[in-house]
Design a protein that fits this description.
Strand content: under 5%
Structural class: mainly alpha
Largest sheet: none
Radius of gyration: 21 Å
Order of helices and strands: HHHHHHHHHHHHHHHHHHH
Helix content: over 70%
Number of helices: 19
């Protein structure tokens, strides 16, 4: 009872619970709708959806230039609001550039993107802009401590997206892409409430320049990180075809459920709490990182064990016979999921460090790991097994880097890295 009382009084625990509750509802909706989606859409269609989502994941990092993470670190509320508004305006411009890149990739048939329909680029603009707006508003809500709004945002997206895809299924692959776009855009309704309805400009070049270290230092690392995370589906589509890519897309979505459910909630609150500790006492950040990682490991191991054993048997029963390969892939990816669930939530400590470029070592190696699949001649299962253990090793290396960055020698006050542009 004493432990429960302490947990209820903990702002960290209440924040995690608020976000995790909303995320849990969103993920439950995703789990419930997945069996229906796999019976309405073919593996080939999900492969094309995976290409679209992979592009959005990588392009969304560039769409904000990583200014959204500076919102939490800003030294004043006025500065945070100016950053938020400027990031929202910047996302529209970057969305147009993203459309051009997607269309060039489609016409050049780069990494299998030539299989996408010609109307994928206009949808990409809407989906990319909505994604970038959600990122900026989410971080502003975290700064305001509006964790309940963040949870409701997750629920809205988690429900609207699959429902839209189900209703639009007569359109074939177009239903998947349009439903993805609708879900990302309409889910923003909950987050807009946190933004003050005050007059003033939506473009603050002076503030963006003060926080120029985020696009200069954080963007390359974050871009490579997301590229490594999203690259497997396009690479598997290019090497083995859309059907295999669709199986991997489904496997990633299913395996990513616990990561999204627990990791996303912990990451938001961890970053806010770590920023507070860095402002008050730098020596408390490293123990906080170790403690959080240990708790995540104890939580992740049972998930990984259950996934590795049960996935091949459950996949065909839940998703249908055409998805047997996806079940094998889920089992293979279990160690990858455990490593990601432990390391990813605490990785935001890099945004508080004076040496964020150190993460580039991990990011570059991650991209090379995916690229190595073009060299070796392996079956899809063997290629995924190789990639899984490469990523597990790289996550271990990344955690060591984070541990160093979280020490006195690696940290700086959050205001320093952003405001002074160091």
């Amino acid at each position: 009872m004493r432990v429960l009382r302490r947990l209820r009084q903990s702002t960290f625990f209440r924040g995690v619970l608020a976000i995790a509750g909303g995320t849990a509802l969103a993920q439950v909706a995703g789990v419930l709708f997945l069996p229906l989606l796999t019976r309405l859409y073919s593996p080939e269609a999900l492969g094309l959806w995976g290409l679209f989502v992979s592009f959005l994941g990588v392009a969304s990092v560039a769409a904000t230039l990583r200014y959204e993470v500076a919102i939490v670190a800003a030294s004043s509320e006025e500065e945070a609001l100016a950053l938020t508004r400027s990031t929202l305006a910047l996302a529209v411009v970057m969305g147009f550039l993203g459309v051009l890149v997607l269309e060039l990739m489609r016409r050049a048939d780069l990494l299998g993107y030539g299989a996408l329909p010609s109307w994928a680029a206009p949808l990409g603009f809407a989906a990319l802009t909505g994604t970038a707006w959600g990122m900026a508003l989410r971080y502003y809500a975290v700064r305001q401590g509006a964790f309940g709004l963040v949870g409701r945002f997750a629920v809205a997206q988690g429900v609207i997206r699959p429902v839209s895809q189900i209703l639009l299924s007569p359109a074939g692959v177009g239903g998947l892409l349009l439903g993805e776009t609708v879900g990302r855009f309409l889910g923003l309704t909950a987050l807009w409430r946190v933004l003050p309805r005050t007059s003033g400009p939506w473009w603050h070049l002076d503030v963006l320049l003060r926080f120029r270290s985020f696009p200069l230092l954080q963007l390359p690392s974050s871009f490579l990180d997301m590229l490594a995370l999203m690259a497997p589906v396009p690479v598997f589509v290019a090497l083995y075809g859309p059907a295999v890519g669709g199986a991997l897309a489904l496997a990633q979505r299913a395996v990513g459920l616990p990561v999204s459910l627990v990791g996303g909630a912990v990451a938001d609150v961890f970053y806010g709490r770590a920023a507070e500790l860095a402002r008050a006492d730098l020596q408390r950040v490293r123990p906080f990182l170790v403690q959080t990682s240990a708790r995540l490991l104890l939580m992740a191991l049972p998930f990984g064990l259950a996934l590795g054993i049960a996935a091949p048997f459950l996949a065909t029963w839940v998703f249908g016979e055409p998805w047997a390969l996806a079940g094998e892939m889920m089992s293979i990816m279990a160690p990858w999921m455990v490593a990601q669930l432990v390391v990813s939530p605490v990785s935001r400590v890099v945004f508080l460090s004076r040496f964020p470029w150190a993460k580039l070592v991990y990011d570059a190696l991650s991209v090379l790991a995916v690229g190595a699949l073009f060299i070796v001649q392996l079956s899809p299962e063997e290629a995924l097994r190789l990639l899984t253990w490469l990523y597990v090793a790289l996550y271990a290396l990344y955690w060591v880097i984070l541990l160093w960055l979280a020490g006195d020698e690696g940290l700086s006050a959050p205001r320093v890295a952003g405001a002074k542009g160091e």
